[in-house]
Amino acid sequence: MEGFCKMCRVCDGRACGNTIPGPGAKGVGDTAIRNYDKWKEIRVNMDTICENRQPDTTLELFGKRFRFPVFAGPVGAVELHYGDRYDDLAYNNILIPAAREAGIAAFTGDGMNEQVMISACSVIGENDGFGIPTVKPWNAEMVAQKMELVRQSGSFAVAMDIDAAGLPFLKNFQPPAGSKSTKELTEIIREAGVPFIVKGVMTVAGARKAVEAGASAIVVSNHGGRVLDQCPATAEVLEQIADACGGAVKILVDGGIRSGVDIFKALALGADAVLIARPYVCAVYRQGAQGVSELTEQLGTELADTMAMCGAASLSEIRREMVFRG
Fold it and tell me: Which residue in 22, 177, 256, 283 could disulfide with 291, CB within 3.0 to 4.6 Å?
């Protein structure tokens, strides 16, 4: 990964601001840094005066059962952004089955090269549909072509990273691509035929529009800081978005989440699960399938330990008062 990701001991965005192509963020990289920092400002409240029970970290979502409330986040064009050790087909061939073996699922990426989505859907199909393709907000014709690949894969859900509208190649795409009206999004969701996840929601208004369009879930996400500088951190807006949705959709969140303690904080603030992207890329590049397994086990162990020390024996028992914000 030399010349791309610097494999920092702490992936906090500070070493790779304004390095795109690469794993960095837009502009000065402020949003990626803020994503990481704001989770660290939230503390967890220890309470061990409770029944001694083994924490249950399992999650039920869209008819599937997962060991942990964690998903590997979508990354496309890995050769361009992370180094030529893998292309997208090779990367997905490792990540998707390894994630499944670890008891979670992987979102897959999309890009200008049609082979990115083709390879992702191919590997998902080979793994009995156990993956979530993420389609970018192309124009209607391109979205229809991508969604056909999704249907052929048999995936149990599909996502659209609506915030990718800020990426340069989408801004300059012809015919025009990018932002979608609620009406356009409604039509896309209606045609999907599987649970639809709208990724890239950062406001209560945006969440309500996603619900109106028929989304089954949203991802509170600012695209890792890659599309808009000086944006709020996901940790800063998650709580109000979750409260506004009131259970109408499942809530996922990403951005700077690096540990099982961070996962606990996200769930306490209203998320049902989290997405983690950059660390899973590093895990694949460093150790392949074993890296995916070890990272997932580490996150799950940290989450279970935090649950036990804060008095939550299941995900549903994680409550707002279990975190502290001074």
Answer: 283
15: buried, middle or exposed (CB in 10 Å: 19+, 13-18, 0-12)?
middle
Query: How many domains does the chain contain in total?
Result: 1
pLDDT of residue 253: 98
For 2, other C-beta atoms within 10 Å of its C-beta total 7
Would you state the torsion angle of the CA atoms of residues 162, 166, 167, 173, taken in this order, to the nearest 10 degrees? 90
Inside any domain, residue 156: yes
Amino acid letter, 31: T
Residue 70: inside a domain: yes
Query: 321 exposed, middle or buried (CB, 10 Å; 0-12, 13-18, 19+)?
Result: exposed
Strand pairing category for 323-324 and 43-44: antiparallel
Q: H or E segment at 205?
A: helix 204-213
Q: Binding site membership: which residues?
A: 199, 221, 223, 226, 254-258
Q: Quote the domain boundaries for residue 297.
A: 30-315
The residue with tokens 């997405």 is 275
pLDDT in tens, 87-119: 999 999 999 999 999 999 999 999 888 888 999
pTM: 0.96
- For 185, how many CA atoms within 13 A lie in the half-sphere containing its CB? 27
Q: Residue 85: left (phi > 0), alpha (psi -120 to 50), or beta?
A: alpha
- 3 is a domain residue: no
Burial 83-111 (b: 16+ CB within 10 A, else e): beebbbebbbbbbbbbbbebbbbbbbbbb
Q: Which two three-digit tokens encode residue 225? A: 């800081």
Contact, 169 vs 130, CB < 8 A?
Answer: no
Q: Which residues are catalytic?
A: 223
Asked if the structure places residue 300 within a domain, the reply is yes
Give the model confidence (pLDDT) of 197-236 as tens digits.
Answer: 999 999 999 999 999 999 999 999 999 999 999 999 999 9
At 257, which CATH number?
A: 3.20.20.70
